[in-house]
Amino acid sequence: MCVFCKIVKKELPAKIVYEDDKVMAFHDINPQAPIHILIIPKEHIETVNDLQENHKELIGHIFLVAKKIAKELGVDEKGYRILINCNKDGGQEVYHIHFHFFAGKPLGPMICK
């Protein structure tokens, strides 16, 4: 069982900031910004490549949760970034799709070299 599934089942601790029947959001244990939250579906989906037509509503829901978190944390007007990695070369380390929510400082443009 993956580490995120264990967090969903409350077998591992996490600093949860949001939870409903479809998704969970919690602070990243290795933050890359002052605010670094992971938003995950409770359903185990390994990568973006594994998404199906029936996941459209779930993915839309994740973005609405991100919007809600931004408002609750007071960063909705200043700005935030949402990032998702897919597979090894895309930077994915945990094979359970997760959306990184970054905020709390100016993030600047992303430049890939």
UniProtKB/TrEMBL annotation:
<dbReference type="InterPro" id="IPR036265">
    <property type="entry name" value="HIT-like_sf"/>
</dbReference>
<protein>
    <submittedName>
        <fullName>Histidine triad (HIT) family protein</fullName>
    </submittedName>
</protein>
<dbReference type="InterPro" id="IPR019808">
    <property type="entry name" value="Histidine_triad_CS"/>
</dbReference>
<dbReference type="Pfam" id="PF01230">
    <property type="entry name" value="HIT"/>
</dbReference>
<feature type="domain" description="HIT">
    <location>
        <begin position="3"/>
        <end position="112"/>
    </location>
</feature>
<dbReference type="InterPro" id="IPR001310">
    <property type="entry name" value="Histidine_triad_HIT"/>
</dbReference>
<feature type="short sequence motif" description="Histidine triad motif">
    <location>
        <begin position="96"/>
        <end position="100"/>
    </location>
</feature>
<dbReference type="InterPro" id="IPR011146">
    <property type="entry name" value="HIT-like"/>
</dbReference>
